[in-house]
Records
---
Amino acid sequence: MKHATKKPLRSVGTRPVRPDGIDKVTGRALFSADFNLPDALHGAVLRSPFAHARILSIDTTRALALAGVKAVVTASDMPAIPDDKVMINAQPPDFRDMSANILAREKVLYEGHAIAAVAAKDAETANRALQLIDIEYEVLPHVIDVQQAMEPGAPLLHENLITKGINPAPVQASNIASRHEQVHGDVELGFAQADIILTEEFTTQPVHQGYIEPHACLARVASDGQTEIWCSSQGQFMVRAYCARLLDMPLSQIRVMPLEIGGGFGGKTTVYLEPLAVLLSRKSGLPVKMQMSRADVFRATGPAPGSYISMKIGARKDGTLVAAQGILCYQAGAFAGSPVRLGCMTAFAPYDIANVKLIGYDIVVNRPKSAAYRAPGAPMASFAAESLIDMLAQRLDMDPIDLRIRNAAREGTRTAYGPSFKEIGYLETLEAARAHPHYAAPLGKNQGRGVASGFWFNIGGQSSAALTLNEDGTVMVATGNPDIGGSRASMALMAAEVLQIDVSQVRPQIVDTSSIAYSDLTGGSRVTFAVGMAVIQAASDMVVKLQERAATLWDVSVEHVRWQDGCAVTDVEGREERLSLAALAAQTAKTGGPIAAHVSLNAQGAGPGFGTHICDVEVDPDTGRVTVLRYTAVQDVGKAVHPSYVEGQLQGGAAQGIGWALNEAYMYDENGAQLNPGFLDYRVPVASDLPMIDTVLVEVPNPRHPFGVRGVGEVPIIPPLGAVANAVSRASGVRHVDLPMSPPAVLKAIQRAARRRR
Amino acid sequence: MQYQAPTRLDDVAALLASAGGHGRVMAGGTDLLARFAGGMPRPAVLVDIKRVAELMVIEQDSDGGFTVGAGVCGAAINENAILRQAWPGVTEAMDLIGSVQIQGRASLGGNLCNASPAADSVPALIAAGASCRILGSRGERTLAVADVIHSPGKTCLGTDEFIVSFYLPPRPARSADAYLRLIPRSEMDIAVAGAAVNLTLDDEGVVVSASVALGAVSPVPLLVPRAADVMLGTRLDNDVMVQLKSVVSASCRPINDKRGTIDYRNHVAGVLAVRAALIAGQRATAKERA
């Protein structure tokens, strides 16, 4: 493309107020629960009280007989998914599993698993109707721990589940859904060259994405089957595609209106309520609104998987890493499909290690089906790898950043998962961290400093953008991805950059599925990069058209027209003539009609991202309580289009990672029921738990993007687990290998170490 | 549910009596409304007591004792500099409850009548030797705060009774209190364990009176006279603190639940009691200098 990164930028890299800012701070923005229609019914979901049970019978007669109840649906209302419709292009998700997760068939697989849904005139009636649904259960033994689920005698969630990825295939069913092996070099040879070998076992707990907005939607089905859905999600086209597949409908019959999204972090890349609302509306003939409570969100929507990881690294005395090996077991939840493969791919990606062998197991347990959470699969694997690197630094009495620099992946480094890196900025993040004043600041008693790094692929994908020139010369930018991290601002800035106009002249819009061509969902840190490419290309196309229109007005050849400062410019007899965007917009009737540009593309060339975080903590040796004193996140962001929102991504990722490391955990009773489905006892950090998180944006441009953009949204949640654990371990003088490092856990580790020393 | 907001003490008692056990007092509502939202059945009559003048005042008597209305919110308590100076432990305990918004509503009366084992203000009030004035349809009585909570969620108040005010006794010179709790977060959480210590020192810095009360480590907030005895006649030296810690830990009768284990609560209650005693001691000494 024509717009080289070398050229000075006028809009990209500035910090204007976001276009959706006023709406959001004044409460005018419509989030999913804010949208209403007259006559809408209230939809409610009946959820399993048992962690594992066979459904012997469901009788909805009494519920349907209750005055005010308009419709009841159960799994028998969901179409069976035929074999050829289980996946799209052999890629997950598995729609048969998704269907069974939305309404349980035959068995309930976790406490909170949906069994039936009701639509009634109001919430009270709907909730009373739920009590009148008669279900006979045969309660089965359950398993929620990943290691126990792998044992031969463990209760089986799916009686026919045969482990994939083992040759020959096992004959016995188990809870191990698949085995993934990643081999690079020869680990036996590698460990033979090692002077030091460190081995450790790590565990992490499932953690919820913790978005502040619970799932909600409103669906209206007309008598001819035309279906409208209003909801927030990470992709209106995803909602359309998934509902169509699950309900066996043509895509053209569904229109999804995106509402503002109050956080997703990966957790809103699937559907839970939307198909139910459609079925209930179809049956009742009225709009149906559904909303989850916070408890529903915790009991029935996706956490990131918990893990058990056994890992080993080998190094020479000078710190050179020669081999790494490990087994990673991830809890998929009730249905297969944890991101354990991504854990294997990312664990050692920051390092140039000749010999790596990692084996991943995907395990089903009686917990909610796990869902994507920023950099799915990477944080737990990175926690294990970065802890071992820190242990090696301690053993060698070497600075942990120097050790990482010695082993850092660079341009040309062959990754353990296959391809070689092109232009990457990992080394630059390490050098920036080492040079940061934070790294040299003195530490007091019971204080410690931890460092960790992280890697994420980032992706491109199918993306669409439509630019229209208004009659007054202002510009509309329409895209089909929800604004989850400031993307309206980024799209407007990139369009303004190409058009060389002030960003205030550009109004970005997020539009519904009938108003623009398809876009992949928002995930993989792809939107600013990939949808941004579509915007840039559409703006470039618009510039070409504007030059043509100016040429028509001037009656000169288009080669003599250039685009400069938002104007068409030509030289007439040595004199410069200009036509502004507004002037061109006012004369479209004379030059061929309205001006618009629509680009759909499949963006390639996403640039991998690396981050390095520094964390200082103080550990109270008498209570085990950890206080985070100082935190600095350094990341190669390629080019920050709107630096404030990029910094916000880094700070948010760090905050979520700190919660994962210190206090977030699900608690279950002996029957497998969640004890803490709310923010009081599921301890996401509150503002006063965190210091101001400092950020350093390193900009090593991605040459395959016109402005050098790399994805930034996922990398920052990867390093915190290791950084906090390394800090706590150094502050307390004992290595912490189990997350979360809650006060009782830290105290126990300190006391155990003290007993050993005696 | 019928909502009533009377302005006279007698009307509160009358409304509760006529509700015949189906009435409920609401002060700040910070526990009650959350329970309603969680599905708790609603009472026939909800009596909002925040419009009754006697429940909304803080007054100091001529002898130095304080009367604090049962409905006074946490923010008002902590904005009262004289009360804060006299009872730093009671006021800091109240201040720990909830967010800024909650502080604008939550009251000492509500915190006590909610009867949670983990209530923050209650151990501090007990250690302070506070009493409360209780009014019912058949008259008035005074009860030590330590005697109000019967079991988790239950008080000894009759269905027609409510708390009008708390009384904090006059302070001798060189007296101070302190309250500490442990939560995994820094705020917006429920105590895993809490400890309040109230001390009076003599001219030589020797403890002449002491009381220790604990929260979240037994079915009801716990007064621990044995722990107070450890400190009497001492200058809170290291060996005394070691003894205090073990007496406190041994006095706890906690449960294992989602907020903490028995072992952890026993241990931490001892740690907190020692720290609170040292803070109270420092505060009392500082008052002498002032």
---
Amino acid sequence: MKTRDLAYIALFAAIIAVLGTLPAINIGPVPVTAQTLGVMLAGSVLGARRGFLAVLLFLVLVAIGLPLLSSGAGGLSVFAGATAGYLFSWPIAAFVIGWLTERFWSRYNVAWGFAFNVLGGMVVIYLIGVPVLAAVANLSLREALASGAWPFLPGDAAKAFIAAAIADQVRRSYPIIERPQRAVAAR
Amino acid sequence: MTLALYVPRRSPVHRVPAGVKLLALAVLAVVLFAVPTLPMTGGALVAVVVVGLGAARLPVAALARQARTVLWWLIGLFVFHALFSDLPTAAVTVLRLLALVLAAAVVTATTRVSEMVAVIERLCSPLRLFGVRPARIGLVIAMALRFIPVLAERADRIREAQAARGGSARGIRGLRTTVAPLLVQLLQMAHTVGEALDARGADDVPPARGRRSPAPAA
């Protein structure tokens, strides 16, 4: 991995951190934050591998004691909390989005991007986050869905669209995904 | 933006190596979930508070800040379990979460970020087998720590500039005219930082294999 790739990874970890300074809306245990927007962007701009590592790096920064989650939470405590599953699902979400984006790179547009972001950024996150919420909080799956998935559908769908619109624009003016791949193939 | 939850003190807890504290935290989590009884969870909670406030001499605020982020959630959880399960289950569930959150807060508040980074580099050293160099992990963490205040400042500057022009570019137009170009600028900045680091010898070729010539033939 080139130093430039490390810089991209660090940049997106920082972007997710700064998105956490935007105010979050608390509904029940799981807050609506702009940070999942950063997760979607990491996957759709950097691709699977670097997107995954960027989000993982962000979680490492949180774990070593920086108050980077929205509402200033941080430290190891958050990985023991009810929302731990959502946090662990983020790198996987970025990977899935990045993988799909790379696959369909030549045909990428806002509609495809939206679909990938919904699949990776919503389906994957709910699939992992909701069962963990249910387990940690001793809730039934139905109750966990009611407090940890359904309220987020409109906000997350909006974020999926916004991330796709930005990624499409970046793809046209400063594509990150295709160039390094060519460089690797040439070596 | 304060960038650390670390509380400097001269205490025995601060002096315990970071790796040991992290291990203790992991053990506590396993034990509390394996033995879900009220004396165990209650005892653990008391012990954590004694270690944090007594031995480590942390201010109450350092622990309270972390507890506050989960407070309403814990209250809701308690009420829920008190109504639908029974009182002991409710107490154990809530106290267990509170004990773990506070224990993690104690570790976080008594351990420097640089020590944590060193632990991470050490933990990652087996990854050498897969070609990962732990020093690169330290480098990427350092870069992210530097980028965070830079980004926060740029975001502030844009907000100020928009306010000075008496409005803000909202909606899809805003994405096209502000956010995407900003992201492109940031990517260019990251690219430049990467090149600058390579120029100063941070390059990705392991020293053992020798340096690449500055301009490799195609």
---
Amino acid sequence: MADMTIPERIPINLVVNGERRALEVVPWTTLLDALRDRLELTGTKKGCDHGQCGACTVLIDGRRVNSCLTLAVMKDGAEITTIEGLAGDGALHPLQQAFIDHDAFQCGYCTPGQICSAAGLVAEGRARDADEIRELMSGNLCRCGAYPNIVAAIEQAMSRS
Amino acid sequence: MNNFQYSRASDVADAIRLLAADPGAKLIAGGTNLIDLMKENVERPSRLIDISRLPLREVEETPDGGLRIGALVPNSDLAYHPLIEQRYPLLASAILAGASAQLRNMASVGGNLMQRTRCSYFYDTTTPCNKRSPGTGCSAMDGLNRNHAILGTSNSCIATNPSDMSVALAALGALVHIAGPSGLRTIALTDFHRLPEDKPHLDTNLGSGEIITAIELPPHGFARNYSYLKIRDRLSYAFALVSVAAALELEGNAIGEARLALGGVAHKPWRSLGAEAALRGQAATPDHFGRAADLLLQGATARSHNGFKIELARRAVVRTLMQATSATPQSQAHKKIA
């Protein structure tokens, strides 16, 4: 049987979108819940909460991951980039602009995860054509079915990066 | 998710000590499977021992010309490692056939070996499952068993091992390095996972107080004639119905060495030395490949919904061996099966 006594909150430091944030978390707090509920960064979405839909995708130290399957306490000291941190001063991130240019969404719920995942994809430099974009974006579901436009948006951002 | 204590291991010995001190503890690295199972209340550890910061992230050449891969190397880093791409492209291909880019970035090599079955009854705590709750019965046996095992099953369990990486590692003859309270030991990957028999709650032969420290690849990587073919219900980000890792050493059209392993069909990667021996010295033809497939699938049995897997596996073996022969391995991005 699991020990049901409540452990003390554990202090951690995260650098979120370039800003140092200190907080105390119980060990079972996911990074997703810490971002949304503690740091009030609700751009990162909770879809399935099981790593199957990609709506919770953020970048940790530049790599795209599912924040719903990440314990905040394990990322003490890490640099986190969320959708709120992608745009520069007054200018959209090229992927944000490309998603608008190509109408790469309908309801928009998966979009922050799609864009963060695409940012990771571009940084990885492994996708060279539309088939490879589709394969390497398969961890991000879009129930509205905006996939053709999402691929086109990412191709645009890749060609200009 | 249940409440649990959290410890961060300072080194491998500390992780072993922490494991010994708390029988309900579990190691966590990438967490991609364990956190998911905890959210479903399938796993309820009293303590998580965080090993993610241990220095087990090197990919090093061994004196005999093989490679030693630290247990914490992320799956994506391994798949894209230049030495893996050049010398062991079968392994790179199998890793990239699994999960999503995000999960591959998170998941460790050791954790990949430890991932648990995706049998839907194992995940559903309202149903009997001998793997989750020993002695309660198997709901898959007479339930929805389309995804389930056709080889090496028992009356207790027909679950499959979900790993793609392990299938390639089995074919390549990889070793698993383990540390525990009584020291270090090394076992073959094919002996690491076990068949369900009457103890399906045990997925592997790893002792409860032990930790995987590294995977070792022997020198021979079969970099020229290989293929990993994964057949599944959707083209990406789905578990295998059947997958095949094939590797050949060819002299002209004659087979020297052959390696063959199946995924998605058993409680462990399925390899048959008899099937491989039958290929040695033969011409690389569909007829000989079919005979090897029959040997590999000897004893296959179906339940009500998974009978199609036997013929699917046979055809997939032949096709994968033909891809290996022609040095046109299956692309994991361009989905057309050549």
---
Amino acid sequence: MGIISRGFTGRRRTSPDLPPGQYLTEDFPVLSAGPTPRVPTDRWEFTITTETGQVYRWDWSAFRALPAQEVTVDLHCVTRWSKLGTSWEGVSLDTLFADVETAAEYALAHSYGGYTTNLPVEDLLDGKAWVAYTYDGEDLAPEHGGPARLLVPRLYLWKSAKWVRGITLSHDDEPGFWETAGYHNYGDPWREQRYWDG
Amino acid sequence: MSWRVGTVTTLRDETPTARTLVLQVSDWPGHAAGQHVDVRLTAADGYSATRSYSIASAADGERVEITVERLPDGEVSPYLTREAAVGDPLELLGPLGGWFVWRPGQPEPVQLVAGGSGLVPLMAMVRARERSGSGAPMRLLYSVRDPTAVLYRDELRRRAQQDRGLEVAYAYTRAAPEGWSRRPGRVDGLLLAEATWAPDRAPTCYVCGPTGFVEAVADLLLAAGHDPGRIRTERFGPTGGPR
């Protein structure tokens, strides 16, 4: 327990679904490192590139023709807000990986605008991750990562790359944008893995 | 990284709703301008709440300043701006953030664009520039509701006159000082063209403020021809995105 702050009582909006050090918000704050890319869907594509260099490619219509799922998940941002019970529609990474031949352990997601983030392949599969294109029943807004973003709710939200354009698979773990700027390599909210050496 | 304990040494009201807390932090490792700290408050029964605050000061030994805007529905900011007293201990983690920073070794021109209390990390850059003797030309465009809401008013006025290579421009959104030439309103392309570096000077741009402000300014900078790779943003606020 920390040092007592004389006279502090707090607001105490808590929930068992709130990881340590987080607070609840009803809003949907936006955090990104640069300008919001505007990606028209007629120029959008998503690729998976394996460790052997094989490329699997979807344009918007091929992507939207894939079976979709509706999911309700909790979001936890490393800046300490959490938003519970958010509704999304997207394509499971299990669907996108169905025909992909790979033995790679690591994935690097990359985005329109140049953002990258790394995560283990196993955190993308078995119903743990989606490429999402609606939020709360509406097309995903550009500031929230539209037309489509990665959604990996088990990890801090910076792993859910906005404006995602592809995933590169590798036997080597390559830290992404925030992971090389002081943030944790894995980012599990329940273990409070916020910062690289913390 | 572990929690440190700072001691409040000075409190300074910047506006009716914003207060600077000067902290003495033993073994502070130093920080870069633009970084932030997490501040943790703990109640007597162990309940705790943590929020992030930008560092306002340039690196200066064990002295760290944060400026906190009181949010009407806030949990931590009302305590920091009303209850915290000189001599109180405060727990903090940091410095944090390795992207929205300016370092004195950067030779290129710098464009700062602040919305409201988004000025705080940019003020650290203004202060760090002068303190380091950097020759990088720096411009600040500060969008603020009205003259009573201006943070660091006297210091900004003094620095605009004394810091060589620093230029400060204001955009008042609701009410301007008497005799001000521009009608109150949001930052637009015209003002940006007048008050900020042209894209051909290839400045690094730092934009900080509420999400709507940052989105609008970043789009204007892109439209003016700035390289998206040179625009760094920091968004904050309790009502960041669309609800």
